[in-house]
């Protein structure tokens, strides 16, 4: 996906290539990401209403300007322990017609990986993580793991 924009200082039109941009976030010290065009918005800690009898990964529901959003603990979904203070940032996405908030430890920057090739998921990565990952980028800071958001949100 690319979008044409006009630079007001030069009057020149440029192309923004969103297919090579990822929203980054941290979970348990690991840099993870998802395509920027899948992110509806990023929110600070929100009030989440618990949902009785829900799966362990479902933290509850939050009200986002009148829209009910299912909050999913990415730590639980990845088989990681919960944080002691249980404070999370929210990465809101819309998948399969439903809105979800992925609860993450911290949100990073939008990372542009144009000119880099996505590498296959390493065999050394935990099998559970491999099943929810589409690939990795080797960055100077370390491994940038790209999540398969649809698989993460498929609870079957």
Give the tags:
OB fold (Dihydrolipoamide Acetyltransferase, E2P); five-stranded mixed β-sheet; 3 helices; 8% helix; globular; disordered N terminus; CheW-lke_dom
Outline the structure in words.
With 156 residues, this protein is mainly beta. Helices cover 8% and strands 49% of the residues. The protein has a domain of 99 residues: OB fold (Dihydrolipoamide Acetyltransferase, E2P) (Beta Barrel). The strands form 3 sheets. A 5-stranded mixed β-sheet has the order 10-3-4-12-11. It has a 5-stranded mixed β-sheet with strand order 5-8-9-7-6. Strand 1 and strand 2 form a beta hairpin. The longest helix is centred in the last third of the chain and has 5 residues. The radius of gyration is 17 Å and the shape is globular. It starts with a strand and ends with a helix. InterPro entries: CheW, CheW-like_dom_sf, CheW-lke_dom. This is Chemotaxis protein CheW.
| Unreliable residue stretches | 1-16
SSE string: EEEEEEEHEEEHEEH
Per the CATH scheme, the topology name of the domain at 23-114 and 146-152 is: OB fold (Dihydrolipoamide Acetyltransferase, E2P)
Mean of residue pLDDT values: 86
Structural class: mainly beta
What order do the strands of the largest sheet run in, or round the barrel if closed? 10-3-4-12-11
Shape: globular
Corresponding CATH architecture of the domain at 23-114 and 146-152: Beta Barrel
Radius of gyration: 17 Å
Q: How large a portion of the residues is in β-strands, by DSSP E?
A: over 45%
Distance between the termini: 30 Å
How many beta-strand segments?
Answer: 12
**CATH class of the domain at 23-114 and 146-152, please?**
Mainly Beta
- How is the quaternary structure best described? single chain
Largest sheet at a glance? 5 strands, mixed
Q: Approximately how much helix is present in the residues? A: under 10%
């Amino acid at each position: 996906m690319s979008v044409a924009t006009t630079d007001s200082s030069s009057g020149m039109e440029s192309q923004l290539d969103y297919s090579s941009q990822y929203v980054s976030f941290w979970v348990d010290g690991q840099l993870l990401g998802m395509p920027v065009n899948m992110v509806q918005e990023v929110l600070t800690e929100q009030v989440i209403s618990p949902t009785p009898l829900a799966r362990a990964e479902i933290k509850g529901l939050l009200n986002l300007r009148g829209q009910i959003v299912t909050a999913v603990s990415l730590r639980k979904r990845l088989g990681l322990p919960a944080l002691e203070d249980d404070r999370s940032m929210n990465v809101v996405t819309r998948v399969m017609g439903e809105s979800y908030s992925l609860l993450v430890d911290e949100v990073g920057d939008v990372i542009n990986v144009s000119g880099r090739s996505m590498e296959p998921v390493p065999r050394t990565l935990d099998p559970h993580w491999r099943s929810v990952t589409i690939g990795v980028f080797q960055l100077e800071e370390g491994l940038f793991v790209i999540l398969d958001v649809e698989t993460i949100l498929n609870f079957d």
